[in-house]
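Example record for the data management plan.
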Amino acid sequence: MERSLWLVSLTHMFIEVYFLVQVALIPVFVREFRLSLFEASLVATVPNIVALLMNIPIGYLADRVSTNCILAAAMIIESASAFAISQANSFWLLVLCVTAMRISSPLYHITGLSNISRAVTRERMSRSMGVHNALGSLGVASGLVSLSVFQSTIGWRWIYVFWTVPVFAWGLIVLKSSQLKTTGTGRPDRGDVLGTLPLIFSVGFVTFLVAVGLREVGSTGTSTFMTTYLVRTRGVTEAVASFVFGLGPFTGILGSLVGGYLGDKIGAKRTLDFAVVGCILSLAALAFCSQLFPLTVLYVVYAFFSNTVWSPMNTLVTDLTPKAERGLSFSVYFLTEGVIVAATPVLTAAVIGLTDVWTIFPFGILFLVAGLVTLQLLSHR
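Corresponding structural encoding:
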């Protein structure tokens, strides 16, 4: 396997370290900053709004600027923001710092996935995406597990200090890498970004984006308030809730690899169908579980299927869009996800406010089913 794939995938691991930490800390933010659940949801919503606005310009840059420069910038922004979060002493300063950190995600994902999609053959695409996503899951899991350790000992702020140095150091390594000194497809000028947008849209790609958006509402609505559900409804401590939440990404390592393997064997579309059905069934079972141990087991099963979706979805983007505009294609894909991820926490918080935190389960199942039905309209071989 190409060295560049491993460099990009390891960068993915570092970029995902903080991905779910803010979500897991929502109960802590509510207590420490004396917030309502709606105010706390802004920690997820405001950064995501800013990040989604960055998607299209970053996609344009990804087709023109050297990969190693963009990935290094993502690492440096993440490390600097993490240290700033560790020092934040007010809620709005915290939101500002998390927002700065969130910019590193589209910088990495659009550029890194564009690099993989161009460097790997179609026959190896699904498995390569599986390896890439597995290392991302390892990063998420490492962040959440280390968070549970720091919460139980010296405090949640140290999770941000702990990862600052390795993330920054890896950014310097990526910057010096000769394997990643590539720029798009080698075409120096393809016009402005608005002129290239029509090249990537097709009926199949638009249908895929709608299906992804519906699935993302269900997934985000559930994951954002999972630790809140465990603390408020099941009465576990914040550290235990973070630990249970952190088991999901560890299972996601296996889910990502399985998703990549199945994608090669039965196709990306069928693999995505299988994964979404698994999410629906496991989430339905999870809704009616009251004991901590079986609840934890079912959450791990749900997390397995939830992480299986990423490899086939990334592969479908490469199949449904032109290679010459791959950076812009991934930016549109992430823009769609970003809009949903930004809006869903506030929407879910409003629904919870009118009902109960348990409502995250029927809420999530409803949108997962809608995404699955829409996916059946996609004709893809």
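Summary line stored alongside the record: DSSP finds 19 helices and no strands in the chain.
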